[in-house]
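job 3f2a | input accepted
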Amino acid sequence: MEAAAPHNPAEPTPTANSVGLTVTSPEQMRELGRRLAKLLRAGDLVLLSGELGAGKTTLTRGLGEGLGVRGAVTSPTFVIARVHPSLGDGPPLVHVDAYRLSGGLDEMEDLDLDVSLPESVIVVEWGEGKVEELTEDRLRLVIHRAVGDTTDEVRQVTVTGLGGRWSTTDLTVLSA
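job 3f2a | predicted structure (176 res):
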């Protein structure tokens, strides 16, 4: 068993609010996104981490379905960010792919995420080390998959709520 990494003082102390999930298919990943959408509200920041092909965009597609937003949720790798307006009275979804961005929040400032955050749900793929300064209240999802020459669909997903917003939220509802 690996030892935990030392705590970075710039990072908020992680809450005990964390849940581990096993996802065995792309449809289950989308369903996880739909369940997660029920917990989200305007002002929420969600960071997604995982290897290429882990299921970050698939999960975000489910989030978009659960939030009831307009437009197909696809990877924004080449446009960096897409805004999906709500079809109802819910918040818009701002989907960001920070994979090609090398800088931190300075480089992300051109996207005006700080302006969008209060009225939107912002999901950032590859966002660790780049957008944490936006808010101390955020969800971090880490998706692990087998790498190499494999057709294994199994993913281990760890969902961690950071900050006061998530300290009392029951994340175990995601495993339903």
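job 3f2a | The chain has five helices and seven strands.
job 3f2a | closed
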